[in-house]
Amino acid sequence: MTHIRQIRFDNHLGEQLAGTLEEPSNPNGRGMVLGHCFTCSRHTRILSDISERMATHGYTALRFDFSGNGQSDGVFQESTYSKQVRELQCAADYLRANAVSDILLAGHSMGGAAALLCAARTNKIAGVIALSVGAQLLYPERLLSEDQKDHLYETGETRFSSRGRELIITEDFFADAEGHDLLNAVSEIRCPILLVYGGKDITIAPDSGRLLYAANPMGAEIFQVDKADHMFSTDEDRSKVVDHVTKWLQKL
């Protein structure tokens, strides 16, 4: 039996972030913070499935909307990797303030990259799970059309559409991304790492998992669901991921 609560907590700028907290009936003192992908929300199915399972195993699971997404305060155009790292830290602090001692981080796509960057900055993380993470952070050529890039370079920002939303992205976003070396960050992580990929993922470069694993082969494990796409869209594929995450956590 688990208890689900909708909560709000502050990020480092005082913006309120919306979260879903799944609390176990028999907590084991461990918790997990989960961050979503680029323009998604905390309700991404793979994250909610992991959260639900974790709570049944005694973990307090907090999945939340990064600022400017979902039901959180803030504007999307102020999003950066650095800001999301800070927000993951704020979510971890929220759990620590609520009787959770050991914290694991998990994230999907951009949220997974932020989780890896966050884990590289602290010794207070017990483990990190990165789902569908590209070895290279987002850059204009990957995300924008030629017209959008021209507008970005001329004005400092450009509009794009994603998941039915009309959004603005700025030069600051890409400048921040260039300031992070994800492979180097992974090499500096001292807690266990689980890298999870779909064999049919066409959103990220196909060698991303190999490159990230090679950056920390002694600390990382890689798991692939052969028929899964970037979002782990089917119930079967998500079940395989959740089962493997559960087994991996039992070894920590």
Entry keywords:
single chain; 252 residues; alpha/beta; Rossmann fold; 10 strands
Walk me through this protein's architecture:
This protein has 252 residues and is an alpha/beta fold. The chain folds into 2 domains: 2-137 and 180-250, 3-Layer(aba) Sandwich (Rossmann fold); 138-179, no CATH class. The protein has 9 helices and 10 strands. The strands form 2 sheets. It has an 8-stranded mixed β-sheet with strand order 1-2-4-3-5-6-9-10, with helices on both faces. Strand 1 (2-10) and strand 2 form a beta hairpin. Helix 2 crosses helix 3 and helix 3 (110-120) crosses helix 7 (182-188). The chain starts with a strand and ends with a helix.
Task: Name the helicity range.
Answer: 25-40%
Radius of gyration: 17 Å
The figure for the number of domains is 2
- Proportion of beta-strand residues: 25-35%
- The tally of strands reads 10
The topology string of helices and strands comes to EEEHEHEHEHHEEHHEHEH
Structural class category = alpha/beta
CATH architecture call of the largest domain: 3-Layer(aba) Sandwich
So what's the oligomer here?
Answer: single chain
Choose one word for the global shape.
globular
Q: In the CATH hierarchy, what is the class of the largest domain?
A: Alpha Beta
What is the count of DSSP helices, taking H or I runs of 4+ residues?
A: 9
